[in-house]
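URGENT: need a sanity check before tomorrow's submission.

F., can you look over the Modifier of rudimentary, Modr record below? I want to be sure the sequence and structure line up before it goes out.
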Amino acid sequence: CIFRGSQEQQVRPQDIPTQSWYPPSVVGSPASSHPSTPSSAASSSFGFHKPSDRPQSPSQVSPSEAAGMIALLKDKSVDELRKLLSDKEAYNNFLISVDQVKMQNNLRDELRKETLQLARENLEKEPQIQELRNQCRIIRTSELAAAREKLNELERRKEETLKFYSPSSLLQRLQEAMNKSDEESEALHRQLVDKEIDVGPFVQKYKALRTTYHRRALIYLAAKTSTTG
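Structure tokens as predicted:
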């Protein structure tokens, strides 16, 4: 039993208000034949149970923390302990005065401030983010379209170049040039028959045309043989 002066009384289960907002496990069992002490009331109100009362769990209070709580409650009077058990506001005021709770509250406040600061910074960057989005949209709709059109033009020119210098295209152009030389030599021969050109100039031009024709013909035959072989 705990006494604080000659006029203080023992704490009995029937002295605890029946309308307390604490559960029965906190305020104690009415059937108990032993009076509650400040230490036992403090242990019950903060959930300090013996290992036999309930199984061990990760959230159980450590012995050092329990000892610290008991140290805070041991000097309180019976009336003060009874008030902690029955008055929610008194209980909360005591709870927030505990150093561990203060530390947790301070940490919570710091995290809240940092979260608000990050939120403000994000809101301040919103116009910049929107501007970047607009620039990306402009690039997609204008610059990207122009670059794609230029790429398509280059692709078309590439296809034309490859087609122009393909083996079949080269053989065709070589045959056309060979036929042109042959036609020019035949036209020059008709001019000689029609006496439109003298023999001297005819021989010189005709020889050059036939030489070009035969050179192209040999190249054509060699290229065609290599591609078909």
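My own read: The chain is about 70% helix and 0% strand. Residues 1-58 have pLDDT under 50 and may be disordered. If you see anything odd, call me.
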